[in-house]
Every structure is written in C-alpha cells, then in structure tokens.
Design a protein that fits this description.
heterotetramer, A: 253 residues, alpha/beta, Glutaconate Coenzyme A-transferase, eight-stranded mixed β-sheet, two-stranded antiparallel sheet, 7 helices, 21% strand, C: 314 residues, 12 helices, globular
Amino acid sequence: MADYTEREMMAISAGRLISNGDVLFAGTGVSMLAATVSKRIHAPKAVVFFETGGIDPSLDELPMAVSDSRVMHGTCLNSGLVESFSIVGHRRLHTIAFLGAAQIDKFGNLNSTCIGDYHHPKVRFPGSGGACDAASLASGVIIFMQLGKRRFVKKLDYLTSPGWLQGGESRKEAGYARGGPIAVVTNKGIMKFDEATKAMYLAEYYPGVPISEITGEIDFDIDVAGAKESSPPTAEELRILREQVDPQRLILG
Amino acid sequence: MADYTEREMMAISAGRLISNGDVLFAGTGVSMLAATVSKRIHAPKAVVFFETGGIDPSLDELPMAVSDSRVMHGTCLNSGLVESFSIVGHRRLHTIAFLGAAQIDKFGNLNSTCIGDYHHPKVRFPGSGGACDAASLASGVIIFMQLGKRRFVKKLDYLTSPGWLQGGESRKEAGYARGGPIAVVTNKGIMKFDEATKAMYLAEYYPGVPISEITGEIDFDIDVAGAKESSPPTAEELRILREQVDPQRLILG
Amino acid sequence: MSLTEAVQRFIKNGSQVALGGFTVSRNPMAVAYEIIRQNIKDLHIVCHSQGQSFDILVGAGCVKRVELAYGANGRFASTCVRFRKAVERGDIEVEDYSNNQMSLRFLAGSLSIPFIPSKSGFETDLLHKEGFSTEMRSHRKVARKKFAEMTDPFDSDGGKVVLLPALQPDVALVHAQYVGDDGTVRIKGLTFADIEQAKAADAVIVTCEEIVPKSFIRLDPDQNSLPPFLIDAVVRLPYGAHPTACRLFYDYDAKHLNMYRYMARDDAGFRKYLDEWVLGVANHEEYLDKIGGSGLMTIKADPVIGYRPGLDRR
Amino acid sequence: MSLTEAVQRFIKNGSQVALGGFTVSRNPMAVAYEIIRQNIKDLHIVCHSQGQSFDILVGAGCVKRVELAYGANGRFASTCVRFRKAVERGDIEVEDYSNNQMSLRFLAGSLSIPFIPSKSGFETDLLHKEGFSTEMRSHRKVARKKFAEMTDPFDSDGGKVVLLPALQPDVALVHAQYVGDDGTVRIKGLTFADIEQAKAADAVIVTCEEIVPKSFIRLDPDQNSLPPFLIDAVVRLPYGAHPTACRLFYDYDAKHLNMYRYMARDDAGFRKYLDEWVLGVANHEEYLDKIGGSGLMTIKADPVIGYRPGLDRR
C-alpha cells in the first residue's frame, strides 16, 4: 500500500462524509480522530460534541476518552449527559454520530455488548454507552469497523444499536423518527446502504485493494457492482492529520 | 388592639410554626415576611427557598416578588423552576410552603384562579403559579388569609391547590404521598385541621379578639371548643421584624 | 441582526411564543414592544409565571390564546391588570396549568420526549377544567389533551400519575446578560425555565445586555446556558428588560411599574401608556432616551450583589 | 467527617450505590478504595459509563449486581478488565441500559417522578433481553420491570414510547473540585450525571479537592451544583479521584492506568495490585505518599486549561 496507514485512510474517509454545519457526536478512538479531522480539514463549521456533555471543545490535544478534560476546554458549554443526548436527538440539528462496534449485520445494526448468550457470554464488551441512543436519535450514523467474518456477521449475538433493523421501512415502523446508518468505514473500503432495501453495498474500495479481499472478510452477501476506487488521502489531509490532529500518534498508532 | 398590627401578628404567628431544619417555600407578600421572620427569629437553621430557583438567599433586603434579584444573592444555588419543584417534593426534606389564596374551604383547599364560572369568570386571579405544586408536594402548607365570608366559603369556585380535599383519607386516596395544610394564619386567629376528619377548627384567637368576631367571618361551621388565646408578639420579635426584616415597611405597610 | 428584523423573521401572526423571565425579572420587554409596533396578532403565549411582557402584549391585543400558570407582577400587580380584564371580557382563550407543570412541559419539549409524568394536581380543577375547546385542540402546536392520567406501571400498589404534554413553541424569547460573539449565551442569576424553553423551541431570539468576545465566554464554559447552534438571532439591547430587572445590570424600575399599574387600570389610560412608551418611540434607543440617563442610573445594579441596594421601591 | 466514618455510616452490605464521574474522570476512587478496605459486599452498582472505580470494586468482589450502560476506560481499557472477567464467569448480575436511558432514570429519580419516557432503543436487545430475573425484581430498589412500552396518548398517529423506571439509589458518590464550608458543592467541567444522581439518592457522600469559605462559594452561586441540605458527608481528599482526572486540578495518571490494565489481566496480578495500592495503604495519605510527590506534580493540571498539556499519555 501507499505511504499512509489504514487508520489514516479511515479517519480521512470518514471526514470526507461530513458537511459543513453538521453537528458531530464523537466517541473514542478512530471516531475521535475522524471528528477532529472533519473539523480541521473538511468542515470547519461542523460542531464536535461528546455524550459526556462537552460541546465544541478547542481540541488542542486529542482526548483519549469522551470524559477526558480535553473535551471540557474551550467549549461553548460544559454540561452533562441529559443535555448531550437532547442535542443528539434535536429536530433542529443535523447530527451525525461516529460509532464503532464488535459486530455489524447487513442492515447496519450493531453489537457492542457481548459474544455468545447474553446471560452467559463468551466475551463481554463494554455495552451500549451512548451508542444505542446515537443510533436511535441522530440524523445519521457513520460506523467504523475492521473487516472480518466474525465482525461482519449474518446474525448479531446482541442488537445493541439500531441500524436499518430488518431493512425496508422497518426502522420507521419500529418508532424511529429519523436516522439510520449512512456508511461503514472499514480498513479496506466503504459500504453504504441501498435507499429502498437498506441492505449494505460496497461503495468504495481503497486504492489498490482488490474487491475480493473485502468480500472475503464479510459473512453475508454484499452488492459490489457499483464499487469505485477511493481517491487517496491528499498530502494536505495527511499533513494536518499527522501534525495537528494526532502528533503523538496516540490513536494513529 | 395592642401596639402591633394584624400583619405583624400574622407574620410572627406563622414564624412560630416553623421548626429548625425545615425547608421553607416562600411566596410573595406576607408569606415572604413569614419566611424571613422564621429564619431570623424562630428557626435560624431553616432554609428559605423560592419557586424561581433561588435557594437560601441572604435576604439583606426584602424581595418584592419571587423573581426579585434579591432572592439570587448570597444563595447556595441559583437554578430554575424544574430544580426548585424537585426540592419542594423531595422525600429527604421536610418542606413547608407558605401560600395565600382568594378562597379557602373547610378542608383547606384553595382557589387562586377565579370567581364565577372558569370559562366566563367574574373576577380573574393570577392562577396557580407554584401553589398547586407546593400544596401537592410539600410536607406541609401554612396558609395566609384575611377573614371574610367571601373568602372562607362553603364551596370554592375553582379548586387550584389541594388541601385535605373532601377530608378524612381523601387526600391520600387521590394520589398524594404526603403533605396537606397545617394551619391557616388569619388576621384574627389561627385555624388548624382535625387529625381524623381533616376539618378546620379554631386553634387560637389573637389577644383580645372575641371568638364570635372570627366565626362571623366564616361561611362554614367551625369547631371553636378548644381555642386558646395566642401569646402576643414579644418585644424582641417585633424589633427584629421592624428593624431587620422590613424596615421600609414594604409589606408591613 | 436588528430587533426589527429579528421580530419580522421569526414572529408571525398566530405564532406560539414562549416568554422568558419571570414576573419582574428578565422579561423580553424590547421584543414585546417591537411585536406591538409591528402589530402582530393572534399570538399563542406559553409561559409559567409572567408579568410585564405578558400583560402588555395582552393589553395591546396581540394575544389570542394563552397557556400559563400565573399572571402577576409581584407586589406591583397581584393579578396582571390587562390580563385580568381580557379574561373577564372573554377576549382571550386561557388554559391554566401550574408552574411545575409548565416547566416540566418545557423540559419534555427540550428533551424531545412527547410527555412527562407528574405527581402534582390530582383532583384539582387544573385537571378537571379545560380552558381550550375540542376544536382548538386540533390546532397546530396545541396539545390534543390537556393531560392524561395513568397507573404507574412500575408501582405494585398501582399509584396514579399525571402525564403532561410536551411544549415545543415556534419561538422562545430570552433576555440574557451576556452573549459571546460566537453566539454562546450566558444567563446570570436564576434561569427560571429560559433554558428549557429555548431548547424546546423551533427558533430562539436572544436580546442581551452585552456582546462579549468568544475568548471571554469560553474561558469558563461551565457558566454558559445555551450553545450557538440553537440561537437564531442575537440583538444587543442594554436595558432590554426594562422596567423589569436584570441581575447584575439593573433593578426593576419600581416607579415605572407603579405608573403602569395605575395607567393600565382603564382602557384609556392603558392606550395612553402604549402611545407614550411603545408606539410613540420608534425603537429601543428612543425608549432609553425617554427613560432618561438619570432614570437608568437610579436603578443601575451594584455589579456584585446584583440589585440596587436602598432603591426606593414603594 | 473522616473517609472511614463516611463509608461506615452510609454504605452497607447490599447498598445500592451510584458512582459519580465517567470512565477516566472524577471517579470516587478514594471512597472505592475505602469500601474495599472495609470489605463491604453485595453492592448494587448503578451508573452510566463507568471505568476505574467500577472495575476495582467489581474486581475486589464487593459487587453483586450492576445496572449500567458502559464499562470501559477510554483508551486504557476498551472493556473494563475485571468487569469483563466477572461477567464471563457469571460472578455478577448485569442489567444493560444505554447512557441516555440511565441518565434519564437518574433525572426521573431526582424529580421524584416514577418514570420517564424515551424514544431510544425500540426493537433493540436493550429492551428485548432482561438481565435480571423475576425473582431479583422483587428486591428493594430494583425496578419491577426493566421498562414499559406504551402508545403516546398525545399523538394522533399513535407513536410508541418507552417508559424507563426512575432510580433512587441508597447513596450517591461524588468527587467535586470545591465544597464550601457551608456544604455547598461546586463541580467544575462536565457534570456527567453526578447532579441527577445526588439529587435522586437517599444519601450523598462528597469528596473534594478543596473546602473553601462560604463567602467564596456564595459569591457566584450560579456556578454551584448541589445545596448543602442534600449532602450527608463531606471529606476533603486532594487527588481523591486519582488515577482518574479532576479538571483544573490534575490529569489522569496514564502510567498508572496502563499499569492497572496490565496487572488486572490475570487474577494474581490484580490481587497484587489490590494488595499494593488499596489494602497495603491504611488511608488516603499513605496512598498519596505511594504515588509520591513528583508523581502528583507530573499530572498536576494547568489551572486554566484544566489538564496537563504535553503529558506523556502513551
């Protein structure tokens, strides 16, 4: 591959999906990078906020958790959880949430709770946190996932965060006023969801990645007919990411 | 009468009903005086707060409304209405509310909304404000009323704030976990409520006031058998009320 | 944005308007005056305890419908004078709630939840008597029911609960002490239900005493009240809450409120007050001139204790 | 009150405890350590997103039952290490909610309303799968149902709503920056759900960085978080949230958290950590000595920006 890492490509790809004026709900890890990248490069008027209640921090240093004191500095408001979730779901705002998970299915539903039976799990993960709420209430969700057959599964062991549920109109029928997953940003390409069926399809593969390398890591059928090669990160995108966003490579590794 | 006014006697009488440690919900007018008097004379550890959200202000000057900036100075907390009503109803606190009204019935139910039909009232009053909530949620209510047959009525034109409802167990059965009126402090004496029937009875008449002068101003039957003469205000009570609480006689008149 | 433009853009005939402040404090007076000057009609006012801004809008005939808990002005009016007349004459439609109920309704609106439970008001006429007719309840922004009662599903003893419908007004009016040049709003002193009202509304107009640099307002964000992205118009209007008080900046103008109470007693007197103080001044600057420099300084607050100590308030 | 006495008086075997803070910030660490030293068992922990204090209580065997949204520690633990082991071994009973759900449940508890509606989580396993058995649901302080669904009575389209039961824990633990000598609490930076948790609880223990004069804390009461009459114990414990962060006072101790993560991986390592850092120190002063003066100064925050700029956090 070229002179950039998968993580760098993921952060920059996600950033490109953001529009100026969006209000971004950021989690930890790559999602924190992506939010910061969006703000610094692609959408300077986007507002980044955290479920903990920190709204629009200066982010002079990269936070390592959503409760990091770095999300409380230079903000317009320091509040709390009740407040932050009222923002995620506010009808006046176009809110985009960045989420990760342990498992994803064909309709973008997510599991971040457990592998195996809920009452006697083989592996326990942290749980929803604000993921279920962001997936329920935000205008849209961008998901970060490493590819892998144990991650892109036919059936989730536990449905923590609602995607398009069973596809079609099922999300709306379940009681959700808006939202749903927009894209899945992986280490090798980007998936989106069909407007009618809400099934996941391959939209982009990263430069030089063969499509079979992607489909080989997904345990359900996925339409690849319209897939295009992504444009690589520009020198400027990489420079800002490396020099300004995560100079200590805390998340870039 | 002696060398004190009815208003002075009312404020001091109400103050005497307060225990140290009580949390006092104060309104405007005489109720503001009574709360301040309680705190300054009878129960220095009592906490005065206002439905607007001002908790334990220094009250260096007497506020003329519950939204007066004087209820925001020296407080432990300046908050808002949602907060203040969560305090009125807090199970951990013994909260006493001071309320006035246009009409009262035998069971201490209050009207501060209108005279005549609700849809075409003869006289419109301000409405509940926080009175219905304080009467619903506080541990107890102390009511201030001028006597008068149009005020102490057989049937309210509108039930704004719940007292003992129809008496007996009816308040509990209606859904209230606690509370109910403790006393009615009038310009000529003090009424309380029978423990079993919850009917109003005359507990005290102010020094020198004939009982008939009180019953003559009440439009329902009231038990006066156990009524005793109140002790007059002490010189010290009057001095503090006049010199420290309302030196401008804004409410004392 | 100018005051004129803010009102023109966000307040229409029939708009549902949430008034900020509480009786004699931080009323959006300058906006209320501008609404009257622009002759906007049929407003649906939603508020908890309102005084001066509410009464003058009702008196000027701008209001058709009201949901409120309290219409009074502290010691300056035990019932709002023009509100009382309007109700007694049947000029406005009124739905009564309590302060806890109204503030919870705004809270629910601000959280985007459709209703909120309460344990206040069982067996009172606040629940038994409905001010709005069935026909009015089909109108935009009017709740289908005044309230609903239900059994608490989590209580094995079957306790009762009142459900109150959320409010999401067309526009919320806030008068704040500070707004940053980034749009961040800081209210000092009691916030009443201003924050909930603003978050619940479709649009928010903020008037303020001062616009301050972003570097100042973001130095201690713990103190701030509302984020920029919920604010639609900011207008700097010193003394914009006069004759009501604005903590740290000025006290209420007791003389003016007494004059108002006196003049508002009869229709001709109220008309005269309007002509003189609202319609007779073209804008906020002329209003300030009319109060006069010494009038403003008389009520100027001690900036530490927040009001004017020793002010003649009789 | 001493830390020992505060824990003895307010936390018993089986108590329902709300942990303040959020993952790596303002965890009530000193109280958690003291709970472990006093060997208190069978705690029912209620929290939204908890990290260090939660994990160490679970690891030390003090916890029987948990209602939570998230058990992780930012980049220091993608899942809390001992929590994960305890769940996988079946050592604790877990009920999962989301952060919005848990914070709304505390809000409802703080408002003394029995439940609160939400539009989050329809058709997810958060609603479909119950962690607690029917038998557990008859226990003190456990909600009779995980949630209830209903049709919104105010919506003519019959929209659905999830009702969440209120939480009113036995005790809430808060670590604050300042407490006045009058008992007024001031939390700086994000409050998470600490305020709602404290107001919802039967008792509140506050540990703090500094006790300051009443004259200071009441000069700007707009900034305060909790009134004195809801606070049962105040203990001054500088660095009482270490190794988590306390805005304006210190950053998280990245080295310590990395060490914990490493040692907590296996039972023997965790035991060693406990012996060395919790049971092996008699009190908070000995704990501070063990971290050492330079250790404290390394993470000391810039008092204006609130964290330690340039801290080595790898």
